[in-house]
Amino acid sequence: MAAKKRKSKKRSAANSKRPDGFVFFLDRSLGRHVVAEALRTAGAEVEVHADRFREDAPDDEWLDRVGKKGWLVLTKDKRIRYRRAEFDAVVQANVRLFVLTAGNVTAMEMGEIFVKALRGMNRLAGNHDAPFIARVTKGSGVSLYDWRKSKTGR
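Request: output the structure for the sequence above.
Response:
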């Protein structure tokens, strides 16, 4: 009887997905502390724009670097999918982008919404190839945007 060939269980260093989820990158619109701390307290690995890039770094620059790392981008910029240059930068950089659609909420409320949405964001990112833009609602629901309906014609 031939021995079964065993597959290595070692994770690739190039894979940004951790056993308990992805790395979350907070763009400058979400601030530096409150949302990041809420997510970290919930067990998420978080990177903050201000810790990695200049405040005025062009979107295409930081999106490219974050996309190469495979990090999930969180933002509250609801208009990003309608601005051609930014939309194209998301696509070019192969980014998985989650947009908080709730308006008029405090930083603490944003943190709570994202914490409640962690499982859904991890699941969606694990089941869909980049690039994509998804929404996170005030109720912490997570769903993909239909790119065909965007103003960019995609």
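The chain is about 35% helix and 15% strand.
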